[in-house]
Amino acid sequence: MNDPRVSRSLRLTLLSVLETLAISAPTVVDAALGRVTKAACDARIERWSNRIVRRLGIQLEVRGRENARGGPFVIMSNHQSHYDVPLLFYVLGPNLRMVAKKELFRIPLFGGAMRGAGFISVDRADRARAIESLANAKPLLEGGTHLWIAPEGTRSLNGELGPFKKGGFLVAEQLGVPILPITVRGTRNILPSSGVLSSPGERVVVTIHPPVPPPAGGVDPRAARERALEAVRSAIASALP
Fold first, then answer.
1. Residues 6+ apart with CB under 8 A from 167
2. What is the pLDDT of residues 182-221, one digit of tens each?
3. Gap between the Cα atoms of 57 and 99, Å rounded
């Protein structure tokens, strides 16, 4: 621990964890008392994402902001780092809820806060239950809140785009909600999927692509979902190295 860069990087990671716990505790309390509100959760998420992104000194470039006007959208992005989460809230604003693997909801305090704030738990090992869980997103989208899904299902180990799961495309089809593809490039340099040390001052580029229309089932709904999947995947891949 004599290397100042290593100690600083570890300090940044720990501060990010503390920031997350700091917004988790009041959310859990509010949920237990039946007084949790979306407005309060949005305000906490906004403060949290701003503090983390600014503390990291990220050199951020956002391309295609005009494509995010309107909505609501089913937002789909590649997933390279834990920092994708605060970064996308920072870029898109707090009117966004994410779909996360059920294991995260088992983490003490943090999991309860996610549940209280309206995040969606999904079982990646059970396709039928995963699709059933995604149905819980319907009230969010109908209320104008964006839904964020990482179609790869987990963080990339090497930065390359992994296979896409189709549950989010089924949600977009059923609700008639357009999909907003987003490419995040550079967060892996801050904290890779297997890392614990955060690197400050990294350059990150977020590219917001034009919306993709929701799959139109017609006579061949599977083919329609596959076309939408390929369109989203192609858009996200186009802004990766």
1. 122, 127, 130, 131, 134, 149
2. 999 999 999 988 888 999 999 999 999 999 999 886 678 8
3. 27
